[in-house]
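Bumping my old thread because nobody answered last time. Still need a sequence for this structure:
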């Protein structure tokens, strides 16, 4: 991370930095209900626990002080259920008509993380772009889309990235009128059609 910050500091032609992560896990440290694996807590170089919301705010502040545009992409719901495996198991058991049930509602975790993102963006003059809006999208709809939108319980498939991430990201990058990201977006859209 220090090397990346040093590179950004000495490279003024990089005008915009996009930050994206699995925010509920990063900020909270615990995995979604139903997900395999233990907690993920960050330690400083001195092996001390790091307050990730504060560290994130400091990173955004440093980038803004460098004169960078900072784009923060919001998170996606963590399902706690490996969607492709669940579909495969359901098919093998002849349960195709049975609805999938998530181990927990991922909305709360996502909303808490998004609150941090909004607050940091507002305080430091960054651009926050949510990727999932629970007021207009239902999590259940993500489970029944075909092709599947998830590659596992918390990573989007290529189709998911094209449907969920690409449209808001492209719209936001157009605001900055940056050629390279828009060219990449355009190429991805052409390949898909």
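Sorry it took so long. Here it is:
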């Amino acid at each position: 991370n220090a090397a990346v910050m040093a590179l950004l500091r000495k490279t003024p032609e990089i005008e915009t930095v996009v930050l994206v992560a699995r925010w509920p896990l990063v900020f909270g440290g615990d995995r979604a209900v139903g997900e395999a694996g233990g907690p993920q807590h960050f330690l400083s170089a001195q092996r001390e626990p790091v307050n990730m919301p504060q560290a994130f705010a400091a990173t955004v502040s440093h980038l803004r002080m460098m004169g960078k545009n900072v784009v923060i992409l919001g998170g996606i719901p963590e399902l706690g259920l490996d969607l492709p495996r669940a579909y495969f198991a359901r098919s093998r058991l002849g349960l195709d008509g049975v609805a999938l049930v998530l181990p927990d509602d991922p909305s709360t975790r996502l909303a808490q993380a998004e609150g941090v993102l909004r607050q940091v963006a507002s305080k430091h003059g960054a651009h926050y772009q949510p990727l999932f809006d629970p007021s207009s999208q239902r999590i259940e709809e993500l489970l029944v889309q075909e092709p599947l939108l998830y590659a596992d319980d918390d990573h989007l498939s290529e189709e998911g990235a094209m449907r969920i991430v690409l449209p808001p990201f492209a719209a936001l990058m157009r605001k900055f009128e940056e050629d390279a990201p828009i060219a990449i977006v355009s190429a991805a859209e052409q390949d898909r059609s």
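The CA atoms of residues 90 and 96 lie 6 Å apart. Let me know if any region looks off to you.
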